[in-house]
Structure formats: structure tokens, C-alpha cells
Design a protein that fits this description.
alpha/beta; seven-stranded parallel beta sheet; 8 helices; about 45% helix
Length: about 260
Amino acid sequence: MDMGIEGKTALVCAASRGLGRACAEALAEEGVAVTVIARRADVLERAVGEMRAKTGGRVQGVAADVTTSEGRDKALAACPEPDILINNAGGPPPGDFRDWSRDDWIRALDANMLSAIELIRAVVDPMIGRGFGRIVNITSSAVKAPIDILGLSNGARSGLTGFVAGIARKTVRHNVTINNLLPGPFDTDRLAANIRFRAEAEGVEEAEMRRRMMDANPAGRFGDPAEFGRACAFLCSAHAGFMTGQNILLDGGAYPGTF
């Protein structure tokens, strides 16, 4: 399928690895000029080179922390009027809510709620003016089925979800859609860290915990980040203009509910 977005521009946050990178690669393969944001310049430089070689697309990197105002300014200076915005940020650490201070909560909100809202605010009106815009927020399956050890993420990402629900219906008549992609267990560094945490807590080997978690998923495996990236590319496509304010769950069927 031709996604109809060749020649568009995209700003993809936290995209030097994991799900953000998968989204950037999928968009580059569709002929989108992609600006990749990540904090570590060395990792970013290597990732950009690999993405260019793999996709043959136009990919540039900007070392910035989008959870800060300075980082967002730097990102938008490199890609001032993106047609596509992929909001993403590393999730806060797992743990017990009894151990989290107010500062821990503020950091989680800055990373996984407020930074995304600030970037949406910066780009949405120019998108409306051009008559095209696609905003995708990478959140988490925990928005629908909270994970006990990820309380910081549960709270912050749910706040972003509520915000998006309120504005997505106001932009769609201008062909600007805002949707959320909710990943379940995809084979990323983030998942590996959660496996280590659970394995240590339960006193088992990491390999055993990994096997248990895969067996517990109806698909019997973890997701491939490339699958996630292609789903993101569709949401950004010209064919998805009638789809807004949605929470698209990619979890191998782990969520047991109907709604």
C-alpha cells in the first residue's frame, strides 16, 4: 500500500533505538524526511547512519532531550513545521509507589505527559493551516491495563491520554489527527529492564522470567519493533484521516477486555 506521505516531514522523538526508531525507519521507507531526536549524540549518530543505509531515506539526527524546554526548542529548530509528530520518551523506572517522591512524579509527568503536550501545542496550528497533520503518541498498554510496578508510567501516560481525547475531535475537520499507540511487550531495552526487575524480585533467572512472560502472552512471543513501526506509519498515512482520538493497542492479545 502506498501510504501517500512521500515528501512529508516528520519529527520523531526518542528514536535512536526501540519503538521510536522503528517508527522513524517505517516513515523513512515511505519517503518521509525524518528528523530523529535522542539524548545521546554517539548512539544517535550511529543510529542515523544505520537508518539511512537501511531505508535509503532522508534521515537527520538532533541530540536533544525533549523533556526539557531547551531540548524541544532545539528539536523544533531542526524541524520547525513537521507534517508528522511522533511523541515518545523513555518510561520512568519500575518500583513501589511507597518509594516515590514528589520529584519522581514530576519527572514522570515531564517526560511522559507534559513534553508531548508542549510539542503538540507547537506544531498543531501550522498543521491545521496546511490542511494535513498526523500526531501519534507512543504511550503504553498500561493505560488500559495498569502494571503494578509501573505506577509512574500508568499515571503520567493516562494523563496524556485524557488530554488527547479532549482535543483530537477539534482538529480532525482540518485533516489533523491525534492518536495514541499502546505497546504491550515488545522486544526492546525497556522490556529487558522490566524482565530484570521482575526476575530479581522473584528470585529467578532472567531467561526464565523472559520465558514465563512470553508464555503468558496469547501470541506466545514478544512483539517485533518493526511491527509497531508499520502500524505507526499507517496512522500517519493519507488513509487514516478519519481516525482520531483512538488508543490503538498492540499487545498480542494480552488485554482480555472487549472495550
